[in-house]
């Protein structure tokens, strides 16, 4: 078994090839809680497309209609500015989380870790056996037994990846859409079929072969961890004060050793192949497997638990921890600012409908002896899952009249429609081009004020031409 060090990554051999890690299974309170958390997250991932709120799945990215449904709230493309603040808020939340408890997100909640550790590794243990058996099987030449086990294991990998890919697709086309694709056949939905093939391949490759190397090599979160943590960050640490000097248990009373018996159990259970006794490392995802493994050994040798535990660097060296500190306050201030801006903008701009006004293509305006007319279109989008009636009218626009047969329109759930109308300015009130204001009000009282430019000839020239025309028509 390869010995971890601080100079090289355990998962990469000297020649650059991949070194397969086979973490041993472990039992303990942290492992049980982490496994329960993982299965809850897996169930949430599977069930969210099935749960309907206001007639749509709880989370539904409807790319075809360019709509995003999230827990009963429907966002259209013009509302995607919300995602900027939402993602920024998530980023600062991770900053706060990392500052307090390090990479606990990676070890407990990250979807990659959840699927890898609690689905694919469980399949591997079921088919190939425990860690020593898996290592022997890796080193053994290809034979009938090894071929059968590899075929069974990878068949399970492909099957699970196939299911996960279908669930992932349901977030974009819904469960009925996925079922329609299955019953209609690949030829009728070639894009979705290629999507399933691609993600089945990606999931199988990542979770079946690439594995922990994604966390170590590709994931950027581990890279900027050092910028987010400090001596007060609580993560998995080895208590070197108590454990050193390490050594095997002996009856020699004169040989004073620490509590660490150098059994390497913490190394054997690590999913990224590090030795936590070498200190905090980039590869550590704070999964707590080594904590349970060490506690189990300490119990067997009648020594106190907690040789490896969740603690801070300062807590290990001085016995004192300080949770509240300037870095944490700074992250919390940024998070509060982001949430405050999101709330303020959301309240001021987010409405249950969207209205936009444009000029009708063609003639800019028409002018005659009665007055000047402009034609406009209001494009309305109902964001609610119910019928809503909207009323539009001119406001704060003296000298202008709305000449339309009706000034109301009813839209069905999430329906879009366009209404055309004419704005008229009588000759005696016309004063030239000006801004006009149209108020659109839904039946629940929500309002949106639109601004448009009313175009026309210069008022003096227009009226002079009308007077000249009238004089020519009716000479004295």
Q: Averaged pLDDT, please?
A: 87
- As a whole number of angstroms, the C-alpha radius of gyration is 34 Å
Beta-strand residue fraction: 15-25%
Task: State the shape.
Answer: elongated
- Share of residues in helices: 40-55%
**Count of discrete domains:** 2
Strand-pairing-aware structural class: alpha+beta
**Overall number of strands:** 16
Low-confidence stretches: none
Major beta-sheet overview: 5 strands, antiparallel
Q: Distance between the terminal alpha carbons, to the nearest Å?
A: 116 Å
Number of helices: 16
Describe the structure in brief:
The chain is 45% helix and 18% strand. Pfam families: Fer4_18, Fer4_5, FixG_C.
Protein architecture, described:
Residues 247-279 form the 4Fe-4S ferredoxin-type domain. Pfam families: Fer4_18, Fer4_5, FixG_C. InterPro entries: 4Fe4S_Fe-S-bd, 4Fe4S_Fe_S_CS, Cyt_c_oxidase_cbb3_FixG, Electron_Trans/Redox, FixG_C, Ig-like_fold. Keywords: 4Fe-4S, Electron transport, Iron, Iron-sulfur, Membrane, Metal-binding, Transmembrane, Transmembrane helix, Transport. It comes from Rubritalea halochordaticola. There is one protein chain. The protein folds into 2 domains: 1-350, no CATH class; 353-473, Immunoglobulins (Immunoglobulin-like). The strands form 5 sheets. Strands 8, 9, 10, 12 and 14 form a 5-stranded antiparallel beta sheet that branches. Strands 13-11-15-16 form a 4-stranded antiparallel beta sheet, with no helix packed on it. A 3-stranded antiparallel beta sheet has the order 3-4-5. The protein has 16 helices and 16 strands. It is elongated. It has helices at residues 29-47, 81-101, 104-109, 111-128, 131-139, 144-184, 190-210, 213-218, 220-223, 225-228, 240-243, 265-268, 289-300, 313-318, 326-349, 459-473, and strands at residues 52-53, 56-57, 59-62, 67-70, 73-76, 235-238, 308-311, 353-359, 366-367, 371-382, 388-395, 401-403, 408-411, 416-426, 434-442, 447-454. It is α+β, with helices and mostly antiparallel strands and 476 residues long. The longest helix has 41 residues, at 144-184.
């Amino acid at each position: 078994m390869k010995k971890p060090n601080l100079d090289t990554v355990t998962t990469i051999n000297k020649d650059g090839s991949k070194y397969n890690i086979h973490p041993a299974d472990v039992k303990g309170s942290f492992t049980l809680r982490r496994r329960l958390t993982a299965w809850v997250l897996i169930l949430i991932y599977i069930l969210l497309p099935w749960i309907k709120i206001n007639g749509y799945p709880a989370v539904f990215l409807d790319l075809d209609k360019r709509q995003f449904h999230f827990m009963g709230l429907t966002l259209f493309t013009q509302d995607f500015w919300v995602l900027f603040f939402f993602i920024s808020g998530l980023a600062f939340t991770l900053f706060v989380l990392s500052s307090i408890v390090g990479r606990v997100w990676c070890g407990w909640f990250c979807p990659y870790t959840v699927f890898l550790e609690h689905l694919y590794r469980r399949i591997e243990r079921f088919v190939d056996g425990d860690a020593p058996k898996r290592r022997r099987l890796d080193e053994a030449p290809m034979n009938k037994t090894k071929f059968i086990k590899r075929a069974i294991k990878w068949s399970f990998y492909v099957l699970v990846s196939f299911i996960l890919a279908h669930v992932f697709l349901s977030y974009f086309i819904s469960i009925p859409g996925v079922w329609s694709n299955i019953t209609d056949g690949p030829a009728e939905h070639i894009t979705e079929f290629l999507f399933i093939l691609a993600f089945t391949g990606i999931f199988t490759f990542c979770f079946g072969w690439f594995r922990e190397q994604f966390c170590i090599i590709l994931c950027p979160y581990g890279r900027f961890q050092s910028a987010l943590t400090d001596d007060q960050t609580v993560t998995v640490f080895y208590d070197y004060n108590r454990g050193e000097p390490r050594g095997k248990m002996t009856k020699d009373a004169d040989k004073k050793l620490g509590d660490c018996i150098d059994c390497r159990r913490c190394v054997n259970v690590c999913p990224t192949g590090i030795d936590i006794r070498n200190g905090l490392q980039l590869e550590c995802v704070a999964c707590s497997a080594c904590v349970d493994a060490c506690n189990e050994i300490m119990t067997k040798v009648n020594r106190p638990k907690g040789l490896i535990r969740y603690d801070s660097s300062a807590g290990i060296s001085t016995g004192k921890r300080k949770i509240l500190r300037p870095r944490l306050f700074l992250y919390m201030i940024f998070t509060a600012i982001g949430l405050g801006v999101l709330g303020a903008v959301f309240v001021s701009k987010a409405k249950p409908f969207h209205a936009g006004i444009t000029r009708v293509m063609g003639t800019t305006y028409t002018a005659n002896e009665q007055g000047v007319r402009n034609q406009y279109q209001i494009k309305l989008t109902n964001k609610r899952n119910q019928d809503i009636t909207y009323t539009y009218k001119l406001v704060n626009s003296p000298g202008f009249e709305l000449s339309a047969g009706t000034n109301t329109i009813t839209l069905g759930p999430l329906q879009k429609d366009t209404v055309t109308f004419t704005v008229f300015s009588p000759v005696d009130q016309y004063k030239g081009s000006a801004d006009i204001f149209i108020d659109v009000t839904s039946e629940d009282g929500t309002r949106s004020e639109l601004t448009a430019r009313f175009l026309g000839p210069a008022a003096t020239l227009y009226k002079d031409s009308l007077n000249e025309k009238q004089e020519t028509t009716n000479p004295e």
